[in-house]
Amino acid sequence: MAEIGSGKAVIELLKAEQVRHIFGIVGSTFLDVLDVLYDDKSVEYINVRHEQGAAFMADGLARVTGTPAVCLVTSGPGATNLLTGIASAYVGHSPVVAISGGPAFGNYYKDAFQELDLVSMFKPVTKLSIQVNKTDRIPELLHHAMRVAMTGRKGPVFLDIPRDLLNGQTIRNEISQPGSYRPEHPQLPHPDATRQALGILQQGERPLMLVGGGVTWAGASELAVRLSEQCSLPMITAYGRNDAVPNAHPHYIGPLGRAGSPEAGAACRRADVLLVVGSRLGNFTSFYDQRYIQPGTRIIQIDIDSRDIGRTYPVALGMQADAGEALKALLAGLSQERVPASRAAWLQEAKGFRSQRLTRLQNEANLNTLPLKPQRVYVELRRVLPPDTIVALDAGAAPAYGYDRLNFTQPRTFLTPLDLGGLGFAFPVALGAKLGRPDTPVLAIHGDGGFLMNSQEIETAVRHRINAVTLIMNNNCWGSEKAYQKQFYNKRYVGADIGNPRYDKFAELFGAKGYYVEQADQIGDVMQAALRCGKPAIVEVPIDPDEFPTPATATKRGE
C-alpha cells in the first residue's frame, strides 16, 4: 500500500471533508503540515494574530457553511489560547476541528517544553478530545474526529498530535471519503411519535411552534414554514436563532428569551401546546422558569439528541430525530388530520402580537436624542442592510438590542455567542463567515469593550483581504455590568467605565477603511459605503452612555 508523509496525509484528510481554510498561528510543531501548503494552494492557512481569533473564525465559517472548519496551532499557549473560541463552537454546535502539534511523544510526562494535559483541558468544551499515539493511526483518528464532529448534534473536537508523529515520518495511504466512515443520512422519527404529535397538535386550541438552531443545521427552514402554514401554527424562535425562519412571514411573531421580543413571550405564555423543533430550551431561551412556558402547556420537543428532551420541562412527547426529517413526517401526516376551526381565532391573536412588535420597533425611529440611542441605530440598519446580510452579534449591552431589532430572510445569517455570552466573539466570527461565503455581505456588531478583545485581527483581515464590516457602538463602558450596578447597586459604579481610541482611526492605521458617524440620518449612507468599499471596514457610532437594556435576570444576584 502506498505511503505518504504525515503532513501530506493531514491535508488530504481535511480536503476530503471540503476544508479549504485552516486557521492558526505558525508553529514549529506542525511545519510538516504547513510545508504541504507551499505547493498545494487549494487550502489556505489563515495566519491570525491570536489563536482565540482562529477558533472564532473557524466557528463562524462552520456556522454559515455547515461544513467542518479547522484550527491548527502549536502546543502549550497556542492550544490554550483556543479554549474560549472552542467553547463558543461547543455552545453553538459548530463542527470545528482543533488540531495541536504537541511535544515529541517520548517526552510526555517529563514537563517538556510547552507540555500540558491539553486533552483534559479540552474535554469539557468538545464532543471528543484525544491524542494520536501512533503515526499510522492519523487517518483513523482524524476520520473518527470528523465522524464525531459531523454526526448527531454537531460540535467541536480536539486532536493532539505529537510533533514526532508529524515530522518526517510516513503512513499508509488510508484517506477515504466521508461516506465511508460516517453516516450521511439524518435520523428519522418513530412513526408512532409522529402520529402522537399530530394528535396533540390537533387537540390544542392555541398551539405555538418554537423554532431552534436544529432547524437551521438540518436545512429545514422551509419545512418549518410549510408546517406553520398548513397547521395554522404561529412561530417564534429560540434565543439567538432568529434566522431559523423568514422574519417577514406573517405567522412569525418574534424571538423568545433574553433581550428578545416581549410579544413572543406573551404568545408563549398563551400557548396551550408548544411544538419545540430543534431547541434544547436553554438558559437564555427559557430561563428555566415559568416566565414564558406555563406549567399547563403541553410540550412536544424534537431534538437530535435525547439528552435535553424533557430535561427542564416535562414533555407530553419527546421525539429524538433530525429536525428536518421530523418536520417532513409531520407534514406527510397532516392529510389525515384536520385543523380545528377554532384555530383561526388564535392565529388572529398571534398576528396581533406580531403587529404590536412591528409598531413598537417602528416608533423607535422617533428617538432623536444625541448621542444616539442604540435602538435608533438598529432602525437605520434595518432600512439599508441587504436581505442576505450575515450579522454576527457580540455579547454586551449595545449588541443585545439587536436580538429584537434585526430582520432575517435566510438561514445561517445570524451568528451570536448564545449562552456562552463571550465578548470579542463577533469580529473574528464575521471574518470566518466572510471566508465561508465571500459573495455575501457580512456585518459584525460590537460594543467598544468587546471589539478591543480581538481587535488585532483587523490586520489579519487586511492581509487576507477579508472584507467584512464592523459596527462599533461606543459608550465607553462595560454596559451589561453597568446596567446591573445602575439598577441594583444605586449607581455605585466600580470597574464599569473604560476608555477608547477613535476606532475609525484605528482601522486606518491597519490599512482598513474607517468611518465615524454621529447623526442617525448618516448611518444608512455610511453603512452602504462601508459594504461597498472593497476593504475591511470599521464604522464607529457614539451612543448614549446611560442607555442600557434591562438586566438579564430579575433579581440582584442573578438567581
Fold and architecture overview:
There is one protein chain. With 559 residues, this protein is of the alpha/beta class. It has 23 helices and 20 strands. The model is unreliable at 554-559 (pLDDT under 50). The strands form four sheets. Strands 3-2-4-5-7-6 form a six-stranded parallel beta sheet, sandwiched between helices.
Structural classification: alpha/beta
| Main sheet attributes: strand count, strand direction, barrel closure | 6 strands, parallel
State the helicity in percent bands: 25-40%
Count of helix runs: 23
Distance between the termini: 61 Å
Order of strands in the sheet with most strands: 3-2-4-5-7-6
* CA radius of gyration: 24 Å
- The best one-word shape is globular
Q: Which stretches are poorly predicted, pLDDT < 50 over at least 5 residues?
A: 554-559
Give me the count of strands: 20
State mean pLDDT (0 to 100 scale).
94
Strand percent estimate: 15-25%
In short:
The protein is an alpha/beta fold.
Considering the chains and any ligands shown, give keywords for the structure.
globular; disordered C terminus; 559 residues; alpha/beta; 6-stranded parallel sheet; 20 strands
Topology:
Blueprint: E1 3-5, H1 6-16, E2 21-24, H2 31-36, E3 44-47, H3 51-65, E4 69-74, H4 77-80, H5 83-92, E5 96-102, H6 118-122, E6 128-131, H7 138-150, E7 157-162, H8 163-166, E8 170-172, H9 191-203, E9 207-211, H10 213-217, H11 221-231, E10 235-237, E11 252-255, H12 262-270, E12 273-277, H13 283-286, E13 298-303, E14 317-320, H14 323-333, H15 343-363, H16 374-384, E15 390-393, H17 397-400, E16 414-415, H18 426-436, E17 442-447, H19 448-453, H20 457-463, E18 469-474, H21 479-488, H22 503-509, E19 513-516, H23 520-532, E20 537-542
Parallel strand pairs: 2-3, 2-4, 4-5, 5-7, 6-7, 9-10, 9-12, 10-11, 12-13, 13-14, 15-16, 15-17, 17-18, 18-20, 19-20
Antiparallel strand pairs: 1-8
